[in-house]
Specification:
Elements: H1 7-23, H2 33-36, H3 39-55, H4 74-86, H5 95-108, H6 111-122, E1 128-131, E2 147-151, E3 154-165, E4 172-178, E5 189-195, E6 201-206, E7 215-226, E8 230-231, H7 237-246, H8 254-273, H9 280-308, H10 317-339, E9 347-348, E10 351-352, H11 354-363, H12 373-384
Parallel strand pairs: 1-4
Antiparallel strand pairs: 2-3, 3-7, 4-5, 5-8, 6-7, 9-10
Amino acid sequence: MDLTYTEAEEEFRRELRTWLGANIPDEWTRPGFWEALGDDESFRVRRDWERDKALAGFAGIEWPTEFGGRGGTPGMKAIYDEETVRAHAPRTVNPLGLAFLAPTVMAIGSDAQKKEIVGPLLRNEVIWCQGFSEPGAGSDLAALATKGVRDGDDFVVNGQKVWTTNAVHGDKIFTMVRTEPGSQRHRGISMLLIDMHQDGVDARPLKQMSGASEFGEVFFDDARVAATDVLGEIGDGWRTAMLLLSFERGASGIGQYTEFRRQYDEIVEVARTLGRDTDPVIRGRLAKVLTELECLRLHAMHVLTQVEQGRDLGFEASMTKLQWSETFQDLWEVHDDVLGEDATLDSLGDLDLRPLHAQAMWSRSVTIWGGSSQVQRTITAERVLGLPR
C-alpha cells in the first residue's frame, strides 16, 4: 500500500484547491444553506456550477482528453474526491451519468453515441437517470417486466421504473427493458437510451421523510426509442449492465472517508457543546467509530494502490461498498446516541440540527441501495473468499 502521491498529483491538488477557493461562495459552506433552497433552485445552482467546473478543466479527471476529460491518474481522481469534499463543493447533479453511463459509452458505444452523449454529459447539458429498479422486482434486476416491442426502426416501451434518482430533472434515461418476447431472467434484455421529454414518458416525484424529492418513479406508455439508441447489443443488456456497474469498482473510498470524517468532527462538536462528551459510553462509541473511519481510510488507500498498479479489483468492490456503508451508518447511530431524545428536534439552543437530521435519515438507506449489505456479504463470501454456496 502506497500512502503518497506523485509530485504531478500534488501539483494538481494545489491547482484544484486554488480554483475551488475562488469559485465556491462562503454562503454555500454554511450549515443549512442547501437545505434552505427548494429542490428546483438547488438543482439549478449546482448544475450551473458544475458546468463551469467542467469548462475550467476540473471534470472527467480520469477520462481521455479526446472525450473532454483531463487524462489524469487514479491518484488525481482520489485527490479530486478529497478536495471537493473539504471545500464543501456542491454534490453533482449528474452522478449516474458521470460514474456509469459515460465510461460504458466510451467503452462500447457507437461512434454516434460517443459524440452525442459524452461531451454534453460532462458539461451537464443533458441530465441522465438510471432506470433499473421496478416495483415488482425488488432488488432482483433480472425479474424486470418493462417491455420494448419492435416496431420498424423503433422499440415501443411500456412499463414502470421506481427509485429513479433525478427522475423529475432528467432529460434522458438509460434503462433495462425486455425486448425479446417470452424471454426470462437475464436473457432477452436490452439497455435503451430514452428521451424523457417525449409523449409517453411520465416522471413523478417521490417525497422522502426529509421533505426532499431526490427520487421519482417513471412510467412508460408507448414511449418510442430508435433501435440505434440501444447501448451494446440488442438482447445482450445484461452484459452491458454488468459492464456499466463495474465502473464503480475503481472507487477507492477516499471521498467517502473525507466526508465521513468531517461529519464525525461535527458530531463530536455537538457532544462537546451539549456537555455529553464526558459520558464514558458516548466516548467509547465515538472512539469505536473513529477506529472504523481510520480503517476505511487505510482500505481506501489500499484500493487506490491496487488500481494505480493496473489491477482489476472485480468482486472485491463488494468489500468497499460493505465497509463504507456500514461505517457511515455506525457514524450516524453515534449521532443519535449523542442527542438521545433530542434527536427529533430541529434545533437545540443555538444549534441548528436540521443538516444533521438529513444525513442521519439518509444513512439508513446506504446499506440497501447499490446492493444491500446481505448481497455484498454473499458476493464477498462466494466470489472473493471462494466459500461454497
